[in-house]
Design brief:
Strand order of the largest sheet: 5-6-7
Strand content: 15-25%
Number of helices: 7
Helix content: 40-55%
Number of domains: 2
Number of strands: 7
Length: about 170
């Protein structure tokens, strides 16, 4: 599973520099259960750590570090009930709109969804609103009508047309 993430050369994992050994070495990945408190929530998650095969010291691999940070983020969002980035992408696709327009329709600044999709964590109220518009066509239509002055007429008309189409399918 983790083999996909890391540095490869022609299908094989390449060696990584070990600062302890001061040379390129082969390494192994170990799964560890860790606990962390994020915004007052105690989280338990599995992290992956790389260790030098020669000296057994932990080796920093940026891709692995990023992967572990993403696991913490996913665990936090799950436990806190915060919408995840794939759901945000589904909403944009569902309503055939872009991040800027949807941000403005939600009465937020135009970069709000861009920040959320880049990893910022939405407030619980914004997360709740985003989850609601995923399922409640009447709600997003109300928001669109209320904030129509913030986007072009074409954007609102296309959104309302897409909402009607979705309602007919269900």
């Amino acid at each position: 599973m983790h083999n996909i993430l890391f540095k490869y050369k022609k299908g094989r994992r390449i060696n990584i520099f070990c600062p302890e050994c001061r040379k390129e070495v082969k390494y192994q990945i170990e799964n560890l259960v860790e606990n962390k408190t994020v915004h007052g929530l105690k989280l338990e998650y599995t992290t992956e750590r790389a260790y030098c095969n020669d000296c057994n010291e932990e080796i920093y691999i940026s891709e692995l570090h990023d992967h572990n940070i993403q696991k913490i983020d996913d665990t936090y969002r799950e436990k806190a009930g915060i919408i995840k980035v794939p759901k945000l992408k589904e909403i944009l696709k569902q309503y055939n709109t872009d991040k800027r327009q949807l941000s403005l329709i939600l009465c937020n600044d135009e970069k709000t969804l861009t920040r959320y999709m880049d990893g910022d964590i939405p407030s619980k109220s914004n997360s709740k609103t985003l989850k609601k518009i995923k399922e409640d066509y009447k709600f997003i239509k109300q928001l669109a009508e209320k904030n129509r002055h913030k986007v072009t007429d074409d954007a609102i008309n296309n959104l309302i047309k897409d909402i009607k189409s979705l309602q007919q399918k269900n």
